[in-house]
């Protein structure tokens, strides 16, 4: 996301705060204000070694490319994408991750069942994908007339349901979560907040999508846990 970049010579105490925040930046601040300062105020290099998150990145990219291809195929009246699209996108990320050959082979072996399950899920789904990696921005008022800040982010997937409602899906490659955890997930709450305020727009029409009637976490093992949010939430 685009943020105000202070001079590298300015320490966090003297640098301007970002004009935009995201779920990731706010969560970083909650758990470690110093890490927030390093990453979002001073813009120091990240501490994640190359390849550490290659598997998750490859799976996310495969899903994203597949959904974009599916949307394009539907618009053009062409057949939908197949497994080869998933593998091509997944392999491209893994090849660029700087992995050792044995690690690359291990990740490819682990990716196979994940991609197969996703393809079967798509074939059985009654919803219509509207967007993948859909960006949004919404102005949020601060307390006591202290102004506003822009809350930004990306939604992994937005679908339209046959009844005209909207479904938001976030992909996870970690352990599946229990229903109570999903019901309390603040990232999903943030996405519902953006949708409720018209910040999620259908790329094909430019129109805001309806508020989300279903929020879903989809995990690499095929587990799917859904929840909802009220205006009060």
Could you characterize the architecture of this molecule?
By secondary structure, the chain is of the alpha/beta class. The protein is built from seven helices and six strands, in the order βαααααβββααββ. Strands 1, 2, 3, 4, 5 and 6 form a six-stranded mixed β-sheet that branches. A hairpin with a 6-residue loop joins β2 and β3. The two termini are 26 Å apart. Residues 1-7 have low confidence and may be disordered.
Task: Describe the structure concisely for a colleague.
This protein has 233 residues and is of the alpha/beta class. The protein has seven helices and six strands. The two termini are 26 Å apart.
SSE topology sketch:
Blueprint lengths: L19 E3 H9 L1 H9 L12 H23 L6 H13 L5 H24 L3 E14 L6 E13 L5 E7 L6 H5 L2 H11 L15 E8 L4 E4 L6
Parallel strand pairs: 1-3, 4-5
Antiparallel strand pairs: 2-3, 3-4, 5-6
What low-confidence regions span 5 or more consecutive residues with pLDDT below 50? Answer: 1-7
Shape label? globular
SS content category: alpha/beta
The percentage helix is 40-55%
Features:
single chain, 233 residues, alpha/beta
